[in-house]
Design a protein that fits this description.
Helix 6 (about 90-105) crosses helix 7. The protein has eleven helices and two strands. About 70% of the residues lie in helices and about 0% in strands. A two-stranded antiparallel sheet has the order 1-2.
């Protein structure tokens, strides 16, 4: 196994353990033991749990940007690169939003990261910011900017409306609700929002 692959395996195993036992409840010995490594071998790659945690956050941030690029939606905030928002298409954003729900509920490491952030946001300032970036103000502001670029009226209110549905759907999924039905509800809400103008539902031209 190459050094880079070993570092990734350490991050993935640490993420699994952090999300199940908490950051403080997981030791470096736990991680090395699960991987069949000695602590000395683990220390060749990481000096501490904090360094592993920082690598996990960087890994997930990188994947988030990659997913945006693949779906042809803005990767950065509007302040960082407003030109990205001039090219956004409605269907691309709809596809991205639905894929995000599927990602955060069905992808193993994404589910573990969501749980880790939820558990540790009250203890660690870095993870509180990441929870905010991924599940609160970050997606809310991003959605508002997208809606404004798509000429959706009352963009901020409708961003809150959509994100409220999305956030609740994560919790419902965690409680055992069917992922497919939840996605259907999110898509319906999104299409309703994107078809509204000044509170009046647009009629399809025949």
């Amino acid at each position: 196994m190459t050094r880079s692959n070993t570092k990734e395996e350490i991050c993935l195993k640490a993420l699994e353990l952090f999300s199940a036992k908490g950051f403080d409840g997981t030791s470096l010995s736990d991680i090395s033991s699960e991987l069949g490594l000695s602590k000395a071998a683990l220390f060749k790659h990481y000096d501490s749990k904090d360094e592993i945690l920082s690598s996990i956050v960087a890994m997930m941030d990188e994947e988030d940007g990659k997913r945006a690029r693949e779906r042809c939606v803005p990767e950065h905030t509007k302040e960082e690169d407003g030109k990205e928002y001039e090219k956004i298409e409605k269907e691309n954003f709809l596809s991205f939003a639905l894929s995000q729900f599927e990602y955060w509920t069905m992808d193993k490491k994404a589910k573990e990261y969501r749980r880790l952030l939820s558990l540790e946001r009250f203890k660690r300032e870095e993870l509180k910011r990441k929870w905010d970036d991924n599940f609160v103000k970050g997606p809310l502001c991003y959605t508002k900017d997208i809606f404004e670029s798509l000429n959706v009226k009352e963009a901020e209110i409708k961003a809150m409306r959509l994100w409220g549905v999305m956030f609740l759907s994560y919790s419902l999924f965690d409680m055992g609700e069917d992922e497919g039905k939840l996605k259907e509800g999110i898509e319906k809400e999104m299409r309703d929002i994107l078809e509204e103008r000044n509170g009046i539902q647009e009629k399809c031209e025949i």
